[in-house]
Amino acid sequence: MRAKAAPIFLDLVIVLILFGRGKIPELMAHVAHGIKAFKRGIQDDHVRVGNDATQPGCSSEQARDNE
Question: What is the pTM of this model?
Fold first, then answer.
């Protein structure tokens, strides 16, 4: 276990030296914002696809084909 933890600890120290203490939380906040925006985009696409299938003049067979 100690042999596996040493490289991880060394990597963390290097990242801390390169980015500093203040940059890491800022970087993680940007990553979280990007993930949330991506999830919103995926949900919007699902809603948009669902709305396209239920447009007026669209038969039930066409709606099933669009899904």
Answer: 0.46
